[in-house]
Automatic annotation (TrEMBL):
Record protein name field: Putative cytochrome
The keyword Nucleotide-binding belongs to this UniProt entry's keyword annotation: no
A Pfam family this chain is assigned to: Cytochrome_CBB3
InterPro entries named among the record's database cross-references: Cyt_c-like_dom, Cyt_c-like_dom_sf
Domain Cytochrome c span(s) in chain numbering: 25-110
Entry keywords, A to Z: Heme, Iron, Metal-binding
Taxon lineage: Bacteria, Pseudomonadati, Planctomycetota, Candidatus Brocadiia, Candidatus Brocadiales
A molecular function (GO) term: metal ion binding
């Protein structure tokens, strides 16, 4: 009985050791970041049809042509550096990991 418990404790520790770093790496909530920082202009649906987004000329993330015409690196760059007078840069607000976590959120609109 004791042996069994020890075995379970050992296994849990081993599994925890293997699994935890992976969970931490993907622990960033890209959707949550989008909702917090991007919805104001790009909209919950990613169309950019918000007062600010329409006025400033944000493109529709759902558009297949938009998705095909932009690389992941360009998405990262746009979020980090923004566009003068249109979209402010996020490099001082979000970490590099957080910015990268937003790429699949943008891509998901095109699927
Ligand atoms: C103040 C409004 C505003 C906010 C907030 C904003 N954006 Fe933008 N974004 C824009 C505008 C306007 C453009 C178009 C810029 C251009 O034409 O160069 C744009 C462009 C983009 C593009 C490239 C597609 C395009 O239309 O050129 C991506 C990707 C993007 N934004 C992602 C994000 C993400 C992710 C966030 C949140 C972290 C965010 N934006 C926050 C206004 C905003």
């Amino acid at each position: 009985m004791v042996k069994k418990i020890l075995m379970i404790v050992f296994l849990q520790a081993a599994i925890g050791y293997l699994v935890v770093p992976e969970i931490m790496a993907s622990d960033i909530d890209g959707q949550g970041l989008y909702a917090k920082h991007c919805v104001l202009c790009h909209g919950e649906d990613g169309t950019g049809k918000t007062d600010l987004g329409s006025g400033l000329g944000a493109r529709d993330f759902n558009d297949k042509k938009f998705q095909a015409g932009i690389t992941d690196e360009q998405i990262v760059e746009q979020i980090a550096n923004g566009t003068e007078d249109k979209m402010f840069p996020f490099s001082d607000k979000l970490s590099s990991e957080e910015i990268h976590a937003l790429v699949p959120v943008i891509r998901a609109f095109g699927k």
